[in-house]
UniProtKB/TrEMBL annotation:
<keyword id="KW-0472">Membrane</keyword>
<protein>
    <submittedName>
        <fullName>Regulator of protease activity HflC (Stomatin/prohibitin superfamily)</fullName>
    </submittedName>
</protein>
<dbReference type="InterPro" id="IPR036013">
    <property type="entry name" value="Band_7/SPFH_dom_sf"/>
</dbReference>
<dbReference type="GO" id="GO:0008233">
    <property type="term" value="F:peptidase activity"/>
</dbReference>
<dbReference type="InterPro" id="IPR001107">
    <property type="entry name" value="Band_7"/>
</dbReference>
<keyword id="KW-1133">Transmembrane helix</keyword>
<dbReference type="GO" id="GO:0006508">
    <property type="term" value="P:proteolysis"/>
</dbReference>
<dbReference type="InterPro" id="IPR000163">
    <property type="entry name" value="Prohibitin"/>
</dbReference>
<feature type="domain" description="Band 7">
    <location>
        <begin position="25"/>
        <end position="188"/>
    </location>
</feature>
<dbReference type="Pfam" id="PF01145">
    <property type="entry name" value="Band_7"/>
</dbReference>
<keyword id="KW-0645">Protease</keyword>
<keyword id="KW-0812">Transmembrane</keyword>
<keyword id="KW-0378">Hydrolase</keyword>
<feature type="transmembrane region" description="Helical">
    <location>
        <begin position="7"/>
        <end position="29"/>
    </location>
</feature>
<dbReference type="GO" id="GO:0016020">
    <property type="term" value="C:membrane"/>
</dbReference>
Amino acid sequence: MEKLPKAVVFALAGVVLLIIVIIKSSVVIESGQAGVLFQTLNSGIDRENTYGEGFHIIAPWNDMIIYPVRQLSVSDQMKVLSVNGLEVTVDATVWYKPEYSKLPYLHQEKGRTYKDDILIPGISAAARSVVGRYTPEQLYSSKRDVIQNEILEEVQNKLASQYIIVSEVLVKDVTLPIKIKAAIERKLEQEQEALEYEFRLARATKEAQRQKIDAEGKAVANKILSASLTDKILTEKGIEATLKLAESPNSKVVVVGGGESGGLPIILGNQ
């Protein structure tokens, strides 16, 4: 078999080398990612530029370090102490992402493990600081939203110079010691029963007042009516009633006046 000419060999070697260089120099950054360029023969990390999505050509001796920059989340269960020293467990989720324009600084100063080295310790410290202000009863009953907002504020303050953006803290659960939880539930039940009793008592008092006012009104009305019913009015009313009865087919004899009735009509006989 004849040997290939040296020119062809060199040409093939050049093509292979060119392909390697192109592959090594081509970088594709996917959606939701960004890159940090490490310049081997220059000053190291390019601190001035964050490389966005798409196709990039770099020198083959350089390296592109790619980070996710979309919203990320981390969940953690933290054991912390309340204001009176009792241990509680806070189950929280934090939404975060690296600061896009400061990504080169994040990589250079914190590295790829910034979540474990910086973020999670910051969350734990914030949770300890916030939960330590409240009693177990406050944590169990009515302070969930307040705790979330305060932990978020604490985390944001602690990570303000760490090139990490924290957008939300969600406290999913606050777990108390079993005995403390049972005692709080008993107390809440007793308070609810007391409120229910006060409500029933207030309703009964209002009903009694209503009945008293109604009875007093009726008494006044009867008093006024009695004062207005003179003998003359009674006689007139009796006559009106007698005339109506006289028109009835059952009536036999109607005697007007006389007797012990004070002049009122007397009806005698019926069917």
